[in-house]
């Protein structure tokens, strides 16, 4: 019985550092939304261009968000009291702004980015996978 107790103590003391390290890893893990200052500033610049009807500059900023910051989120807009705030994805925000462009600006977007989108679609068709094809719709 004494040997069993000693064996159990030895096992527990040997696994103690591993358990402590595992607890430290779990304590260090946390969830954070990928709010990036560059994305917020780029969105603000795009909004400013849209309000001033500088569509060429707005299109460039919106496309940059889609290409470089698609997996980030933007801060929640100020809501009325009692409403909950939700964070919007940067890509969804940019796509909504592109879809709301007037016809002249849409034609400019098409002229500027259609060749690159067509090339990307051709590449996705050559290596067909669902992920490649979906990426085309999210980026262009």
Structure description:
The structure is a single chain. With 140 residues, the chain is an all-alpha fold. It has helices at residues 2-28, 37-51, 55-68, 90-99, 103-126, 130-139; strands at residues 73-74, 88-89. A two-stranded antiparallel sheet has the order 1-2. Helix 2 (37-51) runs antiparallel to helix 3 and helix 3 runs antiparallel to helix 4. The chain is flat. The chain starts with a helix and ends with a helix. The mean pLDDT is 80.
Task: Estimate percent helicity.
Answer: over 70%
Structural class category: mainly alpha
Total number of β-strand segments?
2
Distance between the termini: 72 Å
Please tag this protein with its features:
3% strand, 71% helix, mainly alpha, two-stranded antiparallel ribbon, 140 residues
Secondary structure layout:
Elements: H1 2-28, H2 37-51, H3 55-68, E1 73-74, E2 88-89, H4 90-99, H5 103-126, H6 130-139
Antiparallel strand pairs: 1-2
Summarize the structure.
With 140 residues, this protein is mainly α. It contains six helices and two strands; from the N terminus they run αααββααα.
């Amino acid at each position: 019985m004494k040997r069993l107790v000693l064996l159990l103590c030895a096992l527990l003391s040997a696994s103690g550092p591993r358990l402590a390290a595992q607890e430290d890893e779990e304590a260090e893990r946390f969830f954070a939304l990928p709010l990036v200052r560059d994305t917020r500033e780029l969105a603000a610049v795009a909004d400013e261009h849209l309000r001033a009807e500088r569509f060429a500059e707005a299109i460039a900023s919106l496309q940059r968000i889609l290409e470089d910051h698609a997996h980030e989120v933007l801060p929640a807009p100020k809501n009325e009291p009692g409403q909950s705030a939700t964070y919007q994805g940067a890509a969804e925000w940019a796509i909504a702004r592109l879809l709301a462009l007037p016809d002249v600006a849409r034609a400019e977007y098409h002229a500027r980015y259609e060749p690159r989108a067509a090339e990307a679609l051709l590449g996705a068709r050559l290596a067909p996978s669902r992920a490649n094809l979906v990426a085309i719709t999210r980026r262009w």
